[in-house]
Amino acid sequence: MQAAAPGPASERQPSRPAGSALLVSMDDLCEPNPAPQGRPQEAPQQEIRMLAGAPERSPNIVLRLDPCGSVLYANPAAAAFLAACGADEGRRVPAPWAEMAREACESGMVRSEEMAVGSGCYDVTLAPVPGDGYVHVYAVDITRRRRAEAAAREAGQKLLRSLEQTVAALARAVEKRDPYTSGHQQRVAAIAVAIAGEMGLAPHRIEGLRLGATIHDIGKLHTPAELLTKPGKLMALELAWIRQHPLTGHEIVKDIDFPWPVAQMVLQHHERMDGSGYPHGLQGEEILLEARILAVADVVDGLSTHRAHRPALGVAAALQEIERMRGRWLDAQAVDACLRLLREQGFVLPA
Ligand SMILES: [Fe+2]
Ligand SMILES: [Fe+2]
Fold it and tell me: Domain HD-GYP: where (predicted)?
């Protein structure tokens, strides 16, 4: 590609482009102002000569186009860019670029955007020069940066998938020990996610809640299996042992670097709004919102399914129970969202 050289300064009208410091400097390079009186001219002219060569040495693309898409100037770095965008032997850019140049000249507005050109990606700025009827194009190749970002995103997603698989394996480990609560954590996760969605939580936060709910009873790994499956009423000491499971669960997961407060969800899922819960007797908003939602889902699933010490109470009774607990033990908004889902919106509890 033969790059056209910029025309001599005498052929252009003195003008100032709108809104671009770089553009101002381009014109200043081509049309140096006389040195102020009393200053030696040698030094500024030397600086100007050095700067005038800047586009020639720049790794970024510098072009000057007329409104028809003819290339009036292209620096050496522009050769590959012009070839990639389909310029006619470097003399004329294709129709879409010519159209952008024409629009920029007509509007007089500087326009910047990210563009895919060939297999590359560029930050492109079109800066019109009012009065002179041409537009400067500055393009920075950001292909490598975008590829690195895509690779980092993919690695992050891969890591998250393996984290989810590990969490699912941990959940299965808990439920293997207690056939009565088999599937409990998965069902609680599904209910909690639905409640959070109804309450309008952000998708990323809901994802964390789903993960936390999936392992909320992981501390039961440390509870003797005979206590988990014991029919009838539990003795005070047995109850105290079972009530250790939020603390034990927190101990198990607290060092895993989740991007959500999963360990706190596990720790707080038996806290109650009036401070009567365990292990720390937290109240109201001291309890993480995710844990408050989790508590509602946990109670609904616990009451509506069969347990070792009692048969299933059914969905209607479970809903009556959370209504009774609303505000005092369970978060009022989470209860309301759950009731709306099940009574008005046809949400069906997972089997
Ligand atoms: Fe629990
Ligand atoms: Fe539970």
Answer: 159-351
